[in-house]
Design brief:
Largest sheet: 9 strands, mixed
Oligomer: single chain
Strand order of the largest sheet: 3-4-2-1-7-8-9-6-5
Helix content: 10-25%
Strand content: 25-35%
Number of helices: 3
Shape: globular
Number of domains: 2
Length: 204
Amino acid sequence: MKNLSQALLIEANKLGSGSPWLILFEIILPDEQGTLRLVRNNEDVTFGGYEYVAFPLELDSVSDTSKGEIQTLTVKVSNVTRVVQAYLEELEGIIGGQVIIRIVNAGLLEENYAELERTYDIISSSADSQYVSIVLGAPNPLGKRFPLNRYLADHCNWKFRSVECGYVGTDLTCRRVLEDCQHKSNSRRFGGYIGLSTGGVRVV
């Protein structure tokens, strides 16, 4: 943990801490359908400008085999309210999404926790009356886009309402085409390449 701040190192090495260590779960749904932010805690937590909702969660230990298989771990989310199960039903088990797990100290939320952050792919999921179980595995490099960038004439590369998009109006959806961007008076932030012909695609 050589890149942690001195304050975090001191807190981590205390025999007893005045502030609890929390596990934050950022569940990035597939196909840009949104993000769920949950924390294993008895109250909500704001971290990095986002609110993490207190939720009953369990994190299993990492599985280990001697057969060269990819290690997995399972996150169990309470299914009493059926909130997370609804996403499973709508988005084909949310397979293809990702989960970012962060360990943070409740009294030092402004510190840099990059070293205590891990990203996993969602490889399977299931639900019963008590829990939604989400099985996580290491990101597969073969699943990454290659080539990295695509240049399309009339399709915006930015996620709607992202920093790159910059839209702050009242519309809740966007078709991510130039016409829609113009309708929202946001065409100066359009993430497409209108200099290309509409029938062309260029990869780099």
